[in-house]
Structures are given as structure tokens and as C-alpha cells.
Amino acid sequence: MRELEFFHYHSGASIWHRHDPRLKLLELSLWSIMALASSPEVMGVIALILIVLLGISGTRISRMRKPLVFWAIMAFTIILTAGSSGGTGSADRLVIGSCSLPFNPEGLARGALRAARLLTVLMAGQLLSATTDPSDLAAALRKILFFLPSSWSSSLATAISLTLAFIPRILDEAAIIRDAAFSRGLGSRRSPLRRMVSLGLPMAEATLRRADLTTEALLSRCYSENPTLPELRIKIRDLLLSLGVILPPSVLMMCIS
Amino acid sequence: MTPPLLETLSLCHTFPDGTKALDNVDLSFHAGSFVVLAGANGSGKTVFMRHLNGLARPTSGEVLLHGNSVLNDLSRARRSIGLVFQDADAQIVGQTVAKDAAFGPENLRLPRHEIDKLVKEALSATGLVGFDERRPHTLSGGEKRRLAVAGVLAMEPEMLVLDEPFTGLDWPGCADLLTVLNNLHSSGKTILLITHDLDKVLAHADRLILMESGCIRADGSPRGIIGEVEKLGIRRPAGEITGMSWKQRL
Question: Does the residue A141 lie in any domain?
């Protein structure tokens, strides 16, 4: 089975692995709001905290290579779009040879900041998913969403935890089919559309077949949307850790505003 | 004679295209027995297994657990008849070995201390002590198969049904699994092993059932009906039945 490196749980015993998942969810929400809405300095502090916590929880940068490439493409698009909009005068054009492209330095900086904010939110998501077992996450969601009808909150929590648990399997199935198809000469087909169809249909079939097998296995084990939940207990250590990671950016945000 | 733990009465299953997967299957299984159900591919073994805890609905006939239809109380049937599927990966849902073994008891809404006790016992019975925090997908094929057994054992079933448990396993993997099954049988568990590969298990079974085209063709002691197997497309193991244990060979 292939191991997903990003947005996937990796068991461990670090302080962040043992941190209460309800507080982790709360912290993720606060970090995301602050990173998206506050000043670059606050975002920088949050990013620094996240880098430290990712290091403590054992998430190596090499594990994030693929999502970082994806982010880099996204960042390039965001910066390019922001950098090429807003300029009106002749001074706001970048001349390369005979080409003249719109160029707005302010927009470029704005785009870079947006890309950095996106990276911070992605890192926060990675920290939560890499250090929280989906079943603990489901239990935390159920507790946090206590105000919803229990059938809604349990369905939502189950859907999230099952999705997180099964994504690697679906990707694994897809990788086997892709390898088999390429070993039978799919790579020599020129049309990307035909390649997509040749891969897409068997992948969809395999995913459904896998889902069917898994459903039977779940039913055999008396699957219920309301199982015994993992025991969640907020300890003093959890509260202190929460304060330690939320207080610095909050104080800085208040000072700046 | 004690009433059977599980019995099927005139069990029939017909697919929507009209193919008969099971045709009037009458079988009974008594507590504490070790039964091998063998048949060539497509003989209806896996469809039969799916009926035993109500995963499939019969076209006609019924499956009785202690005299009551399994369809009347699916939760009890699924707790009592533990199915171990051929594809262990499809059965593993937990993020760690211990959490996967706990999945069944958690669904039964047992108290946490009881779940912990059952998980510990199941991992111990399957030789997975010390694997608690391992990622299931980093286990070897044999270990995964034993984890699938542990996940079912943690629900304290009365009967274990295993579908082709040795497929894809190397010799040590087969021998370890066979040791686990023998120990479970010795401790009183009823075992139904579905396979077309007889030489690993026949020495341990006290009954052999041969299936073909959805029908039971022979049912008796392994020694008594071993001569029938080749007619039904199953390879007859070489040598004496008593010598056919991979466990003994190791």
C-alpha cells in the first residue's frame, strides 16, 4: 500500500500527536482566519509556529515535496494574475523583446502575499491531518457539533473520517491501474483525452469495486454511525499548549491593530 | 445430539441474469468443528459465505443461527459469525493495528475498558502483540491476514469463516496463520475455512465439504471423500492426509 504523504495521518507519540483533537480543530480555525485576514507579520508568526510544530511532529519537508510543487504552480498563477492586473500607464508594462506585458509591482506583492497565506493554511491543514487519527477527528467533530441533531453530526464526522481513511486506498488502486496501463503501452498514445478515458474508466470501476468490498467488510463488523467514541480529555498540558500557539499571533495582531 | 450452531435450509441464490450461484444447499455446522469447504473457482463458495451473516439475501431458503433466521437479527448474526474476507486490505479500516482490532467492538458500543481487553486478547491470540501502534498497511501479507482475524475475534464470534485465507501468502505466512487457526480451534472456536487449496489445511479439519456449481457434491470426513476432489476440479494433495500440515513441516 502506498503511503500518502500529505493530508494523511502518520501515527506518532509527539506532544502534538497527543494534543486534544478538539483544541487542534479550534487552533486550525483560528490560525486560518488570522493567516487569511491579518497582517503579513501575524501570518509570519503563525507560519513560524507551524514550521516548529511540523518539525516536532516528525513531518519532514521531503514528505511535502509533491504538494509544495502543486502550491508553487498555484502561487505562480496567483502572483502572475495579480501582477498583470491593475496597471494602466505605460510605466506599468514589462517589455520583453517585442512583447509588452502589463506589469504592476504592487499587484505582484499582493499576489505573493496571497500565495504565502495559502501556504500557511495548507501547513495548518497538514499539521492537523498528519497528527490526528481520523477516528479521533470524528469524535472531536461530534463533540464540537453538539448543537446539531446527532444524526447530522455523526454522519458528517463519519463521512470525513472515512474519506480520510480511504483516500490512500483509492490512490493505491489508481496507481496499480496506471502502472498496468503504461506497461501495456498507454504512454505511447498521443491523445491526452484517450489516455484519460483509458485510465479513468477502469479507475472508476476499481474504486467502486473497492468501495463495495469495504462496505461488506464494514457491515460484517457491525458498522454503526454511533460507535463507542475514543476517550477525549482536555488536560492542563493541552490548555498550556493551546495558549502557547495561539497567544503570540493574537497579541501581535492586537498590537498592530 | 446438540442442535447445530448454524444451518442452511434449501438455500438458493440466483443472480439477476438467471445464473444459479447456490442451489438448495442444506448444511449444518456444530459448535467446535473445523470444517473445510472446497470447490473450484465459481462453485459458489464465496456467495455461500456472504449468506452466513446476512450480507446476501437468499432467493429462497434460509440461514438459521441457533434456530433463528439470521435476517431477523443481523447485528447478532454479524457478531456471532465472523467473516474474514479474501482481500485483507479491504477489511482493514483502522489507522493502527490496535484501532483496527477495536473497530468491531466500538461498533457494538461496548465500554472502553472492555474494548481494550478484547483488543488485547485478540492481538495476543493472533500473535500480534507489540504491533499495536504499527500502521496496518506496513504489515506483511501474513500479518495483515492475522490482523483481519484479530478484527473479527475482538467481536467474540462463535464461528469464524475464512475465505481463501492462504491466497498470496508465503510459507511462513501460511504457517503462522495456520497456527493461529489451530489454536483458536483448540480453544473451542468453530471454524469454516473456504478454499480450493487443500494441502495446507486438510490435516486439521474434521469435515470436508465439496461444492460444484452451487450444489453440495460431497460431505464427510476428509479421509472418506478425498477421492472425489479431482472430479470437481480441485487438486488432490499429494501424500497422506495426516502429513499435509505446513505447520507440522515447519
Answer: no
Q: Which residues contact A78 (CB under 8 A, 6 or more apart)?
A: A111, A114, A115, A118
Q: Is residue B212 part of a domain?
A: yes
Q: Domain range for residue A103?
A: 1-133+232-257
Task: Sort A69 into a burial class: Cβ within 10 Å, 0-12 / 13-18 / 19+.
Answer: exposed
**In a shared domain, residues A175 and A238:** no
Mutate to test the interface with B, among A2, A142, A167, A220 (most CBs of B within 10 A): A220
Residues A3 and A83 in one domain: yes
Q: What is the ipTM of this complex?
A: 0.83
Which of B81, B93, B117 best probes binding to A when mutated, by most A CB atoms within 10 angstroms? B93
DSSP 8-class letter at B83: E
Out of A210, A218, A227, the one facing B109 most closely (by C-beta) is A227
pLDDT tens per residue across span B134-182: 988 889 989 999 999 999 999 999 999 999 999 888 888 888 899 999 9
What predicted TM-score, i.e. pTM, was given to this entire model?
0.80
Q: Tell me the per-residue pLDDT of B123-134, one tens digit each, with 9 for 90 and over.
A: 999 999 999 989
Q: What is the predicted pLDDT for the residue at B249?
A: 43
Residues 6+ apart with CB under 8 A from B104: A221, A222, B79, B151, B152, B154, B155
Average pLDDT score over residue span B220-248 = 76
Distance between CA atoms of residues A141 and A211, nearest Å: 24
> Residue A58 domain-assigned?
yes
